[in-house]
């Protein structure tokens, strides 16, 4: 496993992070989830990503159990705040009240005194940004959070936050967590250039496009049973890729992967890691062998000709529109 700096910070993270969005506490049994975490540790993965909202807070509990007994200094734990975790009007968003209550709940569930990276899971249009950033900065000063990041923020939103942080002397954002893959490249237009200039690293999710880039979804055929496409919690993300034109072109990547001695999944993960602004790629797993397979993408170098071939194959079906990123930042209190 190779390691990279998280943006311009001094924190080193594993090139591949283990994430438990749809698995822990929902898709797979706890014993299997813990086995996946242990497989990740065996492969040298030290960075683990979760969120308070995943599986209704259960994902953090399972991750906490799985990491119990592991030397805390040897791992990096990332979690997030924003989405509703209760029925009340203050059980959501990025208000000072919700941030403080959310971090205390996360620390309790994770069984730790601090998290390495605390991320604003979306932009909150209803809370003053100064309030959010002051709350995060206070948590840093209290030692409950070491670094602050965001998830699916636009370049303009990140710029606003950096300006306020610089003016008020707050800790700066060091990372952004966007969706990024061979098929979904919307961050390349505005987010990546701005973040490179400001020293902010990308911790990308869905590098395999919710399993589409493994090649298991075939054009003209229904999705395999028990796949991400049949899970009501995850099907919204994957459905945009389940078109025959996309699936046909994904199948054309097989000989490229084969010539390199890689699986389709390894090729997909290695591809996002070629972007120097990517600090880490998040992968999930419902079985230990999946994480072992994906971990082998660390350190893989794809030359310019391979990258050109991939672009040639996928070009017509790649999503590059930056407006798509803006569409993923909804109001904090959806009706």
From TrEMBL:
Domain of life, per lineage: Bacteria
CDD domains: Aldo_ket_red_shaker-like
Keyword NADP: yes
GO cellular component, as recorded: cytosol
Pfam families: Aldo_ket_red (PF00248)
SUPFAM superfamilies referenced in this protein's UniProt entry, alphabetically: NAD(P)-linked oxidoreductase
Gene3D superfamilies referenced in this protein's UniProt entry, alphabetically: NADP-dependent oxidoreductase domain
Keyword annotations of the record: NADP, Oxidoreductase
Domain NADP-dependent oxidoreductase, residue spans: 15-313
Keyword NADP listed: yes
InterPro entries: K_chnl_volt-dep_bsu_KCNAB-rel (IPR005399), NAD(P)_OxRdtase_dom_sf (IPR036812), NADP_OxRdtase_dom (IPR023210)
GO molecular function terms noted in the UniProt entry: oxidoreductase activity
Family assignment from sequence similarity: Belongs to the shaker potassium channel beta subunit family.
Protein name, per record: Aryl-alcohol dehydrogenase-like predicted oxidoreductase
Organism from which the protein derives: Thermopolyspora flexuosa
